[in-house]
Design a protein that fits this description.
Chain lengths: ~210, ~210
DNA sequence: CTGTGTGAATCAATTCACAGCT
DNA sequence: AGCTGTGAATTGATTCACACAG
């Protein structure tokens, strides 16, 4: 069932960038914007912008350009950001705690509605004004909390088991900070953020650049 | 200068995964490993593994497979991980503080050797046993600290200016957590970690999956 | 004349298929 | 026979170039 991939994933990633740049441009008073200008703001090419947008429809006027605020709104709709998305954080260690307090999420319309951990020593504590609950409660909580996405910030050793809990709770999206490839059913979407791997790649390219 | 990358970036990203899986396999007593087995552990195809490795040489024996520990060692050499890499964190807010205490970095051979901020209220504080210094001191500190990579955890509004400081200090790699495309000279390598964009992409794919 | 939208061409990455070592 | 290493084929993404609308 998970084979519907007519939209290239890199396009979707760029749409987020476009939306952010458009919002900023619109806020600073720009009403019309060309693919040229938008591309310059985002660090891509104008034809890339137009091609990416063309997967979803045609939003500009030939010879004129795009309405900055209008296109921004369209992108928010395409990305599913018109309604506030509800997220829960699973794993309230060092990283999870920081993420719970990360202002960037709220600022972009992601509301942290729950914090979960399996360590009894952490359950019950208040973190950023939210009480940490036991992961056992995730499934029942989700019936009324309607969690869209879980941010998984548990250690590698606990990641697969925690992911299984999340899937069992009926949650469809996981942002995974553990350095493991999670095995989940096709209808669940996972994106990985592997900070250590990023450092290792950097390490490689830096060394590579030195070889000249 | 940043001319030919004959090595595909996706291959490098996978090499990190291979290294991690190999280390785990070797630790658990496996001495020989086939591309088939390694691929299964990493969630890729065997020919992908072999093609990725082939960019750097030939490390296996036909009809036999690879020596797990030996290949792991080769990968560490390729990725530039034989020597400990020294990192500094710039921006000691919520996120920077969490990253300073993130055990995963040390565990993978990245040593946090400095914390920097431009906010006088934060300078001088001890965070994870390291005293926060003013970003003005980065350039002189780097002459003896030999920082390989900076983790940039400042707000979007401060990111470009902070990056300029990092570049001026002679540091060649930046792991950027701010949702901005940094403008840096060609000889400096940047990798972006945009957690909000990741959530937005998830939001899209989750909505997409629901359309059935 | 300007700037979008899009098929066609190019470039990059993945997968296939098989030759060659053990 | 078993498994690697690698050109060839294929799939996918980006760039080009131009028709078309304002």
């Amino acid at each position: 069932m998970g084979q519907k991939r007519q939209i290239p994933a890199p396009s979707v990633e760029r749409l987020c960038r476009y939306e952010r740049c458009l919002a900023k441009a619109a806020r600073s008073g720009m009403s019309r914007i060309s693919s040229q200008e938008l591309a310059a703001l985002c660090g891509v090419t104008p034809e890339q912008v137009r091609k990416d947008l063309s997967h979803f429809g045609s939003f500009g006027r030939r010879g004129v350009g795009y309405d900055a605020a209008g296109l921004c709104e369209e992108l928010r709709r395409i990305l599913g950001l018109e309604r506030k998305r509800r997220i829960a954080i699973v794993g309230i260690g060092n990283l999870g705690t920081a993420l719970a307090g990360y202002a960037g999420f709220e600022a972009r319309g992601f509301e942290v509605v729950g914090l979960y951990d399996n360590n009894p020593a952490r359950v019950g504590h208040l973190v950023q004004g939210i009480r940490v609950r036991h992961i056992d409660q995730l499934a029942t909580d989700n019936q009324r909390a309607q969690i869209d996405i879980v941010v998984l910030a548990v250690p590698e050793s606990a990641a697969q088991a925690a992911a299984a809990r999340v899937v069992a709770a009926g949650i469809k999206g996981i942002l995974n900070f553990a350095p493991t490839r999670l095995k989940v059913p096709d209808h669940v979407v996972v994106r990985d953020v592997d900070m250590t791997a990023e450092l290792e790649c950097l390490s490689f390219w830096v060394a590579q650049a030195e070889e000249d």
